[in-house]
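hey can u run this one w/ zinc ion bound, need the structure tokens asap thx
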Amino acid sequence: MTALVHYPIGTPGQPWGAAEKSAWLSRQVRHRSYADDVLAKVDQLRTRFDVTQYGLLEYGAEHYPLLAIRSRGWRDDLPCVLVTGGVHGYETSGVHGALQFVDKHAAGYAGRVNLLVVPCVSPWAYERIHRWNADAVDPNRSFRDNSPAPESAALMRLVAPLRDRFLVHVDLHETTDSDESEFRPALAARDGKPFEPEGVPDGFYLVGDVEDPQADFQQAVIAAVEKITHIAPADDKGEIIGSTVVGHGVINYPLRELGLCGSVTQARYRTTTEVYPDSPRATPAQCNAAQAAAVAAAIDFALAHGV
Ligand SMILES: [Zn+2]
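ok here u go:
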């Protein structure tokens, strides 16, 4: 396919400057409330879990407290598990799947692991149902030194003291129809590149790390999710969104090189979930349940196989 979609901001072939980013920002609309959807739900968990504020995100007059949920009775002798949602704010089931995992599954891990759950890394984008932050920066390409995204920098600071103690990290994402209709065209326009459609896979898949793929671990997570929702097939090139399928529903990315959240710890068992919420065969409840089940399966596998 060679179809080119001209994004309505900027000049094709030229990367955006400040004026284009400002024009983009002026088009963003607040669709939903982080306070109502996320902070209120976290408040309900405070009777059973410890909640800490690890930062404050500020864009102009808007302030967003950044919250992490921790196991009560945190023990230094236990391995740590990191769960991150909403690194891409629009990926709704990542946020609510993380909260559902805490509410429904976390108690079963008491005394076995220390849980650190960050349900909504990028709250400004959660409210705008967008991929980028207010500076037109993708937090999930920004997990690197001197990060250009305050969302990513705050999470890196939270995790840094524990960096070597994580056994598991599950980063919860979605692949949506709006990736193809809005976000990939916007990315191409922002960077002055042509947009080439890749298609959107119908089903759930995982992204592992090319540097440490952990194929058996990934398949254990796929098997758990497959009981809830369907797994994305490989396309006719044997790929999912341009990457070779290395196992049922699994592709690998160079996480560290790309500055992805999946590289924020040194955990032996790391995966990134990609739920497909726009499938006619998947309800929002299934998407949340798939995220929560993926986290539980990842921890179960790690505890069974150890370090
Ligand atoms: Zn994502």
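The beta strands are 50-59, 62-70, 80-85, 114-118, 166-174, 205-209, 239-240, 243-244, 250-253, 269-275. anyway lmk if its weird
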